[in-house]
Every structure is written in C-alpha cells, then in structure tokens.
From TrEMBL:
Organism: Photinus pyralis
UniProtKB keywords: Coiled coil
Protein's UniProt name: Uncharacterized protein
Coiled coil: 51-78
Organism lineage string: Eukaryota, Metazoa, Ecdysozoa, Arthropoda, Hexapoda
Highest taxon above the source species: Eukaryota
Length: 222
C-alpha cells in the first residue's frame, strides 16, 4: 500500500510526537538506568567474589610460607648441629708463620710438646693443613683433626699456655657459630666471651649464658 503525501505527513507527525513525549523519554531513561544498575550490581558482586577468593588464597599462601620458613629454619639448625659435630675433633691454630716447603707435622707436634706439655705423636692426628688461599704477608690458619676427641681435649685445655707467644688455638666453628661468636665479641668484653665444644658462651653479671642465636643475647655489659 502506498501512502499519500498527506498520510505520510500524518505518520511523521505521530512519530515525532511519540519520540518527543516527556513521559516516553522518562520511561526509556528509567528502563536503561535500571538495566545498567542491575548489570553493575552483578559486575560488582562478581568482582567482590573474586577479590574475596583471592584474599583467601593469599592468606593460605601466607600460612604455608610461614610454615615453610619455620621448617627451613629448623632444617638449617639441624644441619648446623651436624656440621659442628663433625668438627668436634678439630682445632684451628693461628699465628704460626707460614714458610715455603714447611713441615706442618713437625711444627705442630713440636708446638704441642714444647708449649702445651702435651706429648702427642703424629699417629694421634688424622690430618692437618692450612686453610684458605695463600696471601702475601700473612700466614694462613692451620686446621688439625685428631683421631679422637680425647687428644683434641688435651690440646684445647692447655691452650692458655700459649698466652704471650702470638700463637692461638681456637675451635673449628661452623660459619653460623663463628658469626655468632664475632657478634658476641662485638657486644661484650673479650674476656667474657668464649666457645666450648662448639657452643658460644658469655659471662654477664657473673652469670654464664649459652647463646644459640642473636635473639638470646642478654643486655650488654659494656
């Protein structure tokens, strides 16, 4: 059906009146706003759910990380104990001048006999050698491993006889315990700090305290 010009104009007028009607526009705007609001609420709800899930996962990861950290510390502590125990027959000798083609067996045995009054023979020693890389102008430490703890104790108990000689005998400590010993020396008078059987001790206020970690240091006596 073909509309006449007059009919076409009437239809256009009706459409214009419909589109420009305030009531219709308000209804359309309200409907659109409602749809947008519903969609936004759904989006926010989904996002909140995702955030809550992520927060839960993060909390769980923190718990697991804390457990792993504690387990790691415990394993390190156990390893340190084992490493120190493997050194229980060792001592380190500091202050013996290093020379080319030196005979350490003879030097060390003579030191024990002449300075410490300990009559040991080479058969009482498992092995000995200097440690570290040679450095011009300095002498490396000598590490001595005895065949039994009893021989090691004879030497270590008499190390005080070396006072004034420039030679010193010390325990063969693990890296962790050596750092702890140095930390103790930095906090307390040197005469109040010592190691015995791989353990670090401090004397504060006349009380001997075993130190296993930095957290266990009592108030400084300096």
């Amino acid at each position: 059906m073909v509309l006449t010009q007059s009919q076409t104009q009437d239809v256009q007028g009706l459409l214009e009146n419909f589109v420009t009607s305030n009531d219709v526009i308000s209804q359309i705007a309200a409907s659109v706003a409602k749809i947008v609001e519903v969609n936004l609420q759904k989006t926010f709800a989904n996002q909140n759910q995702i955030i809550a899930q992520m927060q839960g996962e993060i909390s769980q990861l923190k718990v697991e990380n804390g457990a792993l950290s504690s387990e790691n510390k415990a394993l390190k502590a156990e390893l340190d104990v084992l490493q120190q125990y493997s050194r229980r027959n060792n001592v380190r000798i500091l202050g013996i001048k290093e020379t080319v083609n030196e005979n350490l067996d003879e030097i060390v045995i003579n030191l024990f006999k002449s300075k410490l009054n300990v009559n040991l023979e080479i058969d009482h020693i498992d092995r000995m050698h200097r440690v570290g890389k040679p450095t011009s102008g300095s002498s490396r430490q000598i590490i001595v491993k005895f065949t039994s703890y009893r021989y090691r104790k004879l030497v270590f108990d008499n190390k005080k006889l070396l006072k004034g000689t420039g030679i010193r005998i010390a325990e063969d400590l693990t890296k962790t315990r050596l750092m702890l010993l140095k930390e103790a020396i930095s906090r307390y008078p040197r005469e109040n700090v010592w190691s015995f059987d791989g353990n670090i001790w401090v004397n504060t206020g006349g009380k001997k305290i075993l130190i296993r970690s930095v957290a266990e240091f009592p108030k400084s006596v300096k």
